[in-house]
Every structure is written in structure tokens, then in C-alpha cells.
Amino acid sequence: MPAVVVSSHEATKMTQPTSAVSLRITEDDLALLDARIGMDGARSRSDVVRLAIQEFLHNQPLLQGMKSVRIPLGRNDQVQLGKLYELQGTTPEIAAQEGLKLYIEQAIDKIVRENKLDDVLEASRAATTPRNEYQE
After folding, report:
1. pLDDT of 67-126, one tens digit each?
2. What is the DSSP code (8-state) at residue 64?
3. Model's pTM, two decimal places?
4. Which one, of 1, 8, 100, lies nearest residue 49 by Cα?
5. Contacts of 95 (CB under 8 A, 6+ apart)
6. Where is the domain boundary, 68, 83, 110?
7. What gap in Å lies between CA 120 and CA 115, rounded to an integer?
8. Is 61 part of a structural domain of the chain?
9. How far apart (Å, rounded) are the C-alpha atoms in residues 26 and 88?
10. Residues 42 and 99 occupy one common structural domain
11. How far apart are CA 3 and CA 57, in angstroms?
12. Could you tell me if 67 and 61 are in contact, meaning their C-beta atoms sit under 8 angstroms apart?
């Protein structure tokens, strides 16, 4: 496996002191890493690795035991979320949390309605007097 050396001498300007770190990754991962160069302002492998580490560390849940979800957004969703943020200050995280709460609420309501239907059907069957001609 090729070793990738993350160096503080790359093109990215950093305000804090940095340390060089050696990292071993597979050829496939190295190809994916190289494909990210030029995206999101990354000008080198080191930039890509730094951005990935920053994103990983900053997107960790606030409390132990919490989980986080990553949601890929298409261009239209990004535009619409940008408008919401500009108009109302609604961040993508807040919108996703509200959407998840709404989904859970609707799923629970559906289950409750189905259970009520089952209960009504069961009560109706119990209230029906069996007739002798239908019994064996």
C-alpha cells in the first residue's frame, strides 16, 4: 500500500502549527482521494485529508450514544435549503431534524390507525352472534 504523507508544507495556509502524519491507504482509496483534489477548495492530497478529518470531527454527535446521519443533497435541494437559510435562518441540520420528527410522527400515527382498525374489527367479530347454520 502506498503511504500518504500529510505535510504542513502544502499549499493550504493554516493558522495553527501542524504536524506531519504518515498514513497507509489502499490503492482504491488513494484513487478516490486523488479524485477529490480540486473539489471544495482542496488543492492537494493533504488538503483532501485535512478537510475529511475536519468534517469527520466536526460532525460527531454532541453526546455519547447519539448517532448522526449523512444525507446526500442534490442541487435543487441545496438551492431550496439555501433560500430557507437566507429567509428564516433554517440550517440544513435543522431542516433534516424537523423532517425526521415529522416522518416519525406520521409513521406512529399510521400504526395507531391500523391498530384501531384491528381493534374495531375484533370488536365487531366478537359482537357478531354466531348462527347455528354456519357452525360445524
Report:
1. 888 889 999 999 999 999 999 999 998 999 999 999 999 999 999 999 999 999 988 888
2. T
3. 0.53
4. 8
5. 81, 84
6. 68
7. 9
8. yes
9. 44
10. no
11. 22
12. yes
End-to-end CA separation in angstroms for the chain: 76
Residue 39 is part of which domain span? 1-68
pLDDT digits (tens, 9 = 90+) for 38-52: 888 889 989 999 988
In the 3-class helix/strand/coil scheme, how is 23-45 assigned residue by residue? EECCHHHHHHHHHCCCCCCCCCH
Q: List strand residue ranges (DSSP E) for the chain, in order.
A: 3-6, 21-24
Residue 135 lies in a domain: no
Q: Is 8 exposed, middle or buried (0-12, 13-18, 19+ CB in 10 A)?
A: middle
SS3 (DSSP) at 99: helix
36 Cβ contact partners less than 8 Å away, ≥ 6 residues apart: 42, 48
Grid cell in block for residue 54: 475536519
Question: Residue 136: inside a domain, yes or no?
Answer: no
Residue position matching grid coordinates 493554516: 14
b/e map of 73-111 (b: 16 or more CB within 10 Å)?
eeeeeeeebeeeeeeeeeeeeebeeeeeeeeeeeeeeee
